[in-house]
Amino acid sequence: MLIQTYGEKYQTAASAATATAPADTAVGSTAAEILEMVSCYAYDGMVFYRKGDLVNASASFAYGYGWLDAGCMLGFLNGTTSTGPSEITEKIPEALHEHLAEKTRRYKRMLTEAAGCVVILPDTETPMYRAAVKVQAIVTAEFNRANDIFSTGDEMNALAHFSYGYGWLDCGVRSGLFGITGDRHLFTI
């Protein structure tokens, strides 16, 4: 898939997403924060794309999709979800290769650190605990998928999976499923 197509697909999904609860409730307030992140990354991704920064555009779309998909799975949002990052088939200009390599390695490191400094907060007998376990499993699966892709030399698609998994983890933290035991700067709180 071309990055522009991926971004347009994400923008359509992001603009159609809605909160599942009134804004004056805790669930509605959290939903509004998740929607804000979804919207911001749709906007930011298109700004990066128009400036020719295909690396940050793709990462923004994938990260935002992580927030959108997590928000829908957790019941904060109504919307169209993805099945994970779409495969980017677009050739990245040579001038962006170093930027892509640096960002992919940085996101791998950051997601490793972030995943290692959170704990599940809800009691083990609650549905929210099971939701946290599911989010954690998705983050782990995306991280492992990204590493597999990275080992083939496909840094663009590895970055998309690292970014998507990071979106899930950030949404889990923002929604109260996880507590931060380490560097709070790794999260958008």
Automatic annotation (TrEMBL):
Coiled coil: none
Organismal lineage: Archaea, Methanobacteriati, Methanobacteriota, Stenosarchaea group, Methanomicrobia
Record-annotated DUF357 domain positions: 6-77, 106-178
Pfam families reported for this sequence: DUF357
InterPro entries named among the record's database cross-references: AF1782-like_sf (IPR036809), DUF357 (IPR023140)
Top-level lineage group: Archaea
Protein name in UniProt: DUF357 domain-containing protein
